[in-house]
Amino acid sequence: MKPQPQGPETRRKLLDAAAALYARNGVAATTMRDIAAACGINAGSIYYHFFSKDDITQEILDFGISCVIDNVTGALAKLDPDSSFLLRFRTAIDSHIRAFKEFEDYTIAHLRIFKQVPDHVQERNVVFRDRYEMIWRELLEEGVRAGIIDPSVNINAARLLLLGQMNWTIEWFVAGRDLSTEELVDLIARLFLRGSMTSTINRPGFSEEFMVQ
Asked: For the chain, which residues make up each domain, given as ranges?
């Protein structure tokens, strides 16, 4: 019998295959045998890399959000410390959208299977979710302090609406079909801010400032 590969490359292939299957079929409809078959290995060989299906699922969920966290925090960290809220807000949206497309199977799987998985898997992943939601809460509060977002806006509700709007693009957005990524980012930012802004929106020169690339 041909030896089964056991290195980190095989482990990553298994995760990639599982993420694609989860994104398409969900957790319950995906078996360990399905995952192994997608990688061309025996089903029993998966256990050289993972203790259980829950172990695979946990890594997919955790990576599905941590890759977005890293992309957004990394992009914001590259900006000048004195950057305007508008530039930081647009940069965060842009890096979220790009991470969702770059790691598409993982991000789709994360969104679709979270409520299908056991409680102990959800509980660990909630730590990542809370961390990411805090990034956006702090960014929107920064907008309030900058006098751009109206202080009467419910920040928690606004954050959830914004994240839902961005996350849903994974279901329909194809760069270049109707919009470029840059145009999509601009549209999301404008739609959100026009509904939450103070009278700053009427300030002369605002549109030019907003369109900083």
From this structure: 1-50, 53-210
**Homologous superfamily (CATH) for 1-50:** Homeodomain-like (1.10.10.60)
Whole-model pTM: value is 0.86
Reported as a single tens digit per residue, the pLDDT across 109-131 is 999 999 999 999 999 999 999 99
| 93 exposure class (CB count in 10 Å sphere: 0-12, 13-18, 19+) | buried
Q: Record the tokens describing residue 130, joined without a space.
A: 């809370």
Please give the span between the terminal C-alpha atoms of the chain, in angstroms, as a whole number: 57
The answer to whether 14 and 56 have CB atoms below 8 angstroms apart is yes
Structure tokens at 101: 């497309």
Domain 53-210: give its CATH code: 1.10.357.10
**Residues sharing a CB contact under 8 Å with residue 85, sequence separation 6 or more, in sequence order:** 139, 142, 143, 146, 148
Over 70: is that where the pLDDT of 200 sits? no
**pLDDT tens digit string along 41-62?**
888 889 989 999 999 999 999 9
What six digits make up the tokens of 190? Answer: 């404008």
